[in-house]
Amino acid sequence: MPEISDEVDVLVVGGGPVGLTARALLERWGVRVLLVEKHGGLPPFPRSRLVNMRSMEIFRRLGLAAEITRVGFAPEFGRVRFRDTLRDSDFATATMVGIHGGIAESPEIGVVTSQDRLEPILLGAGETPARFGVELTDLIADDDGVTAVLTDLRGGGRSQLRARYVLAADGANSTVRQRLGIGTNGPGALGRFTTVVFDAELRDWSAAQPAGVYFTRHGSFAPLYPEGGWAWFGRTPEDPATADWAALVSRAVGPGSEVKPEVLRVQHWVMNAFVADRFARGRILLAGDAAHAVPVNGGLGMNAGLADVHNLCWKLAGVLHGWAGPGLLETYEPERLPAAHQTLRQAVANARLAIRVQTSRREPDDGTPGAPEGEPPWTTQFSDQRSLLLGVTYNSAAVLPDGSAPPGAALPGGSAPATAFVPAAIPGQRLPHLWLTPERSTLDTLGDWFTLLTPDPERWERCRIPHWPLRIEPLAIEHAAHYGLGLQGALLVRPDDHIGARWHDYPPSDSALRDALAVLTDGPGGP
Questions:
Q1: How far apart are CA 472 and CA 402, in angstroms?
Q2: pTM, whole model, 2 decimals?
């Protein structure tokens, strides 16, 4: 075994959007972090297509939202369209809520963009080392940390690294998850698919009716970049080595189109659907596709991974900096595992719905476009996922129970019912967005610290404790009333924007805030 060559606080394994975001978040907390990625650089393939409004709120905090919006598509591309072929008219369509335009529940609008446009922005958001072409090939955990063996795939050299924690964001085929022997549950592999990146002139059938995805009977089309480029994806044929990819794309465009696609790249992939049995083992934690892989329909996979690391990184920072106890990290799994299961259920439902809409069309014997068999089996759940994205309600030791929450407002360990979303300022939920000024949201008062929002900040100042990162922010009376607070009440909001505790009025003891922080963080003074 090689000698230990370096030590870090957190080793991030995986250089996709989830790993890169974790690197940026940890760096903001002053955590020594190293990211390793086995591929030689950022991949040129588009892959994930959607950054939803909750993820854009996270990027807003990192100062990246404006740039991500700039390189993405305009809001009118936040729509899905169903056609027999690309050149036919829509027989079903729906806007993607929160992407096609702004919504009252968020200060941000989601963006249709390609992953290869997003990743360079995320890489540039941090200055800590990111080593590409380096693979984690072994790891040994003990009570004090993890020893990782890293192999340089360019030169073949091996080195040992000592990390206090490992954050594994190394994809659906996670080496780390497999080495830990953590199993998965769910449908598993749903099928083999192929993505073909190509150039062609398709404006006649798309310019006047923009969309992020066009579903057809013979595969789906997605515009890649505002300046041009397309991708087609569908089931992999039985003999992909001999497939005529240009002909398959032309068939999906439609007869008589005379389109001659120039095929640039072809990638085969497996659509997975599973959730890991565990998200953590000791000092090793799973996030993103390593923890849960979901079908692409609805753009939920990458965004769920971003929510994972937004939940996890402040907890790692707290333990590493000493203002939180190790029990805080034990709240990661009970908070994110139920959310992953709900995300998987929704993504599978989206995939089945898309198939039902496409198969609702009959294909006549003469090969002409099919006629609809009644109304397409459409529901708003495919495009309106506000409850899933903004209404997750955490239930763990890092949330103090609130006796005023109405029955059914918070489901244990999960989120509010997906059929309707009503923002609520209750412990466990994300702080509801309200505009303080035309440009500043209540979410903008939050940051890399705990935030106490109250209409009476002077009185609560007497409770300030130096041990924890905490800011006390004034809250206008009308906003306090919206949140269900009295004139001396307060909300204690965690660094991940979720409410940790609520007091309708000033508590009887000046130690209430200290006691709450101690419990939430497993810190000094806690039980």
A1: 20
A2: 0.92
